Each structure stands twice: as structure tokens, then as C-alpha cells.
Amino acid sequence: MRLPVLFFVGIFSISHSWIVVGPQQYGISENSSLFLPRIFPRVFQSGRACPGSGCPLALLCWLTRTGCNNGPMMTSSSSSYTPSVATAVNMMQALRKDIHIENNDISVSDYDVECGIQKYSAQKRIIGGHTAGFGELPWQAHIRIAGFQCGGVLLNHNYVATAAHCVHRARLSEITIYLGEHDTKDTGRWLEPIPEESFAVVERIIHPRFKYMLTQPDRYDVALLRLHRPVRFKANILPICLPPDEKVYQGKIGVVAGWGKTDTSYGKTGTNVLQKVLVPILNNIDCRRWHHQKHIHVELHDEMFCAGHRDGKMDACLGDSGGPLVVLDEGRWTLAGITSAGFGCAVDHQPGIYHKVSTTARWIRSQISAR
Q1: Distance in angstroms (rounded) separating the CA atoms of residues 35 and 13
Q2: Which of 121, 212, 270, 273 is least enclosed, having the fewest CB within 10 Å?
Q3: Per-residue pLDDT for 42 more than 90?
Q4: Which ranges of the sequence are coiled-coil (predicted)?
């Protein structure tokens, strides 16, 4: 009997911010009764709503020619204008934020000032998806673990979040995290004006309630990795926003991204260029019903959610575990889920399963602020 493969998935957009929703987890192969991690063998080949006529990220917006709430930067009912640097700086000081921008580097005293903000605009395989533009998802992390790979997401200057199943057994010396990555093979086919940066990991924090489940995805499939040095934010390296506690994104469209498989055919490997896909976030009742129609029993808890299309076609796959599912929420991309698991890739009625970040956001904040 051929058993279904369980994979981990996750990213989407709400309003104007990207939010991560869940990591990838395990799979069952033929002649096996156990789920295996949905990690891939390494074949490396916000601004909030703008108050009045100004943008909370005035200096950053002014320098990058971006806007607020999908509108032009610094507008009024009668005209739009470009503020002077002094004006922009005064606005930022009024918000008591300390921002310094030099040669594409951004130093910020409070990451919330710029979390979930894209400096590079979105552009047009994760299966059924599209190639992401350079810097389009600046919070995306590429995690290499010995002979495997997983995804991750940058939270602040010091921490990356990923799926616990990706790293719970790995030696810290085996883990390398790449930020600002686009083409892992540096083929030269893609314009990468700013290089990626690599980081070692000095500490791993697994959620205390995580259990390595071999027959079902785990409800607390989340881990935090502390980097060996602080991250200097750049146009292609910026943090994601964490969601409010218990925030629900059911019915929203999320964005999932990663360097995992783009073809479900046997023997196919991961892609070297970052891919993205849009997936609707489902309620758990529908997710259970869909799986039941395929004679698959899946245990879903409040700390989990599903995202995907009824007819399959677009999904995360092997190698995308631990990556973010983000949504646009009040002008900023927010982490709704972490790719955790899935029974197969892009199969009808078998959507991806994610860890719901809003249920552990308080724990995450306490960990990354206490160290």
C-alpha cells in the first residue's frame, strides 16, 4: 500500500503586509509507516496606515521612493510633494526611532519600525508558483543543515524562526543560514545587486511543547535560531512582523516561498532560485473534510491551519519546510504560519499544513527579547 507523503508548507498576504503562517514537516514514503521530515537533500546546484499626510517610515520611504497604503509617498488632498531630508528626519525623531541608512545598510533600534516592509516591489517554482523578484521577500531565510535544506524567516537583528522538525536533531555546527539569498548557485542569470550574507547558529530554542511526531504533524512545530552576529538590515535583508496574539487569518490569501521542489516527478530536486505561490488559508473543518474525502486522517489543533487550493496545483513541497507563510496585514507583511507538513505536494484536497504563529507569538517575543 502506498502511503501519502506529509509535507510542510507556508506564506500569504493580508491587506498590505506579509505574514508567516506555518513550517513544513514530515512525509510517509512507500512501505513506511512513519512520517519523514519534509526537508530536501541539499543539491545546491509596514508602514502601518499612514497618519494624516505622512508615513511613519518617512525617511525610509522618501529615500526608496516607496509609498504608504499603496499610495504615493507624502501626499495631501491637494498635492503631493517630496519632503526634505530634514523634514523626514524630524518625523522619525518625533516617533523616537533611530534609523540610519548608508550604502543600503539600515540600522534600527526597534525592528518594528520596518518589519514587513518591502523595498523591492513584487514581481511576476514552489509548485504552480512563480519566481520571486530579487529582494521581494527580504525576510526569507535559506537554511542548510548538513545534507538538507529548510526555509526560515528573519524576526529581528538576532533571530530566525523555522520549523522545529528541521533543526531539533541537528548539530549547531551543521547549520548555516543565508539571508538576502535569491539564486543559491549564483548562476548569473538573475540580477543580484546586493550579495547574500551567511550566518552560523550559536543557540537553538525549540518550543517546549514540540514533539517529533512520526504519524502526524506536530502542533508546536516552531524553533528559533540565534545568529552568531547581529544582522545589518539591507534592502534584501529585512525582518517580518509577528502577528498579534491569537490573530486569525482564515479566508485570507497567503504567500509561501522557498527553494524546494518545483516538480513532483520522482527524482526531481529543489530549485536554486526563490519561488513563491499564493494560497488561501482554510478553516480546519474544511481541511479535515478534504483529507477525509481522500481517506486520510489528519489531526489538526488550534495551533495549526491549512492553506491550499481544492484542486491542488499550487503548494509548497520538499525543501520548503520551516519557511514562512505571510499575509499583508494593515500595510505590513506579517508571519501567519510556518510551513510544517502536507500529504503529498500540490495534490487535490490535500492542502499544506502550517504552524499558526499567532498562537505562539507571545512565546516567540519573550524568547527573542529576553536574550
Answers
A1: 30
A2: 121
A3: no
A4: none
* Distant-in-sequence, close-in-space partners of 266: CB < 8 Å, separation ≥ 6: none
Q: Which residues of 33-52 are buried (b: 16+ CB within 10 A; e: fewer)?
A: eebbbbbbebeeebbbebee
Indicate whether 57 pLDDT > 90: no
Dig out the grid coordinates for 260 from the structure.
524546494
- Rounded to the nearest integer, the mean pLDDT of the chain is 71
Q: How confident is the model at residue 48 (pLDDT cuts 50, 70, 90)?
A: very low
Please say if 77 is a catalytic residue: no
Catalytic-labelled residue, pool 16, 17, 142, 165: 165
Distance CA 16, CA 154 (A): 19
**Coil, helix or strand at residue 316:** coil
The residue from 16, 207, 218, 355 that is catalytic is 218
Contact of 237 with 197, CB cutoff 8 Å? yes
Q: Which of 321, 340, 349, 355 is catalytic?
A: 321
Which residue ranges form the domains of the chain, and what is each CATH number? 1-46+115-371 (2.40.10.10), 58-113 (no CATH)
pLDDT digits (tens, 9 = 90+) for 202-244: 999 999 999 987 778 899 999 999 999 999 999 999 999 999 9
